[in-house]
Amino acid sequence: MIGPAPMCVDCDRYDRETGACAAYPEGIPVEFIMNEWDHRFPKPGDHGLQFVPRSGEVRPQEWWPDERGDRS
User: Fold this and answer.
1) Taking the model in full, what pTM does it have?
2) Between the CA atoms of 20, 25, 55 and 69, what dihedral angle is there, to the nearest 10 degrees?
3) Tens digits of residue pLDDT in 16-27
4) N or C: fewer beta carbons within 10 Å in the chain?
């Protein structure tokens, strides 16, 4: 079963052509790919760069944790 796309694809820091991320130039951690970490919150190694919604494209995803970090 394929789950929802990671929130990375809706982030302005993510390059859709190359799959690169400004926060993780050496590669996006598996926690993000598997939707196990909400990158609206800092994570060690992200160079102080968190999720920034891509202008005009982002739609809140029901699987995103709420502001407390709890999943719906």
Assistant:
1) 0.71
2) 110
3) 899 999 999 999
4) N
